[in-house]
């Protein structure tokens, strides 16, 4: 099995490898992970430079639809040269690229062989959402509430993930976004985006209830086929916790997605 790994903004393939090392140690040794770097040099993500040295990368320099499409074309070329892949594993900005690529392929170029999207069989999304602008271009209705929540969550993430908050409070800095989420359930949040169709492959959605971007992860789960998705709230912030319980749960979800891919379920 070959897995395409898409990192978060302001990190790198090497950093992503480190971030998932705990749960990856619980997976079969014969899985091949391809940790790629985004095409653009970047400033470090908030707080990341405390633990990891440069270089840092991003998949685009701005998040316009045009930039996302350009990165999709770049990713397609990478897959043509280095794929095919059975599964995609994505974190934060990597989830934005992966979900956009899946939508572009599914709705615009489904006839092209091999599938020029990040996952021939399935996708595992960790702490990331979809591009709201891409969704609107693709015919989804994004409510004003979803837009407002997205903007507020980005500001809160920058504040809570920053070096000063990390050094002062550590893991206690993750307070989530309760005031903006308003105590809504996952089902209520999913209703904020109306889907004319859904990403129609097996998907896993992992997010944390203390992550300011929690709603973005829930929104992304809502645009994926409900009968083919699994969700898991790891209870933390914008991170991949390394506790035994969380690592075991993520590993089991990954194995489920891998099994769906190997069985050819689409």
TrEMBL record:
GO MF term (any one)? hydrolase activity
Listed under GO biological process in this entry are: antibiotic biosynthetic process; monocarboxylic acid biosynthetic process; secondary metabolic process
Is the keyword Lipid biosynthesis in the record? no
Q: Where is the Serine hydrolase domain?
A: 1-248
GO cellular component terms, A-Z? cytoplasm; nucleus
- An example of a Pfam family matching this protein is FSH1
The yes or no answer to whether the keyword Hydrolase is present is yes
Supply the alphabetized keyword list: Hydrolase
Q: What is this protein called?
A: Serine hydrolase FSH
What species is this protein from? Penicillium roqueforti (strain FM164)
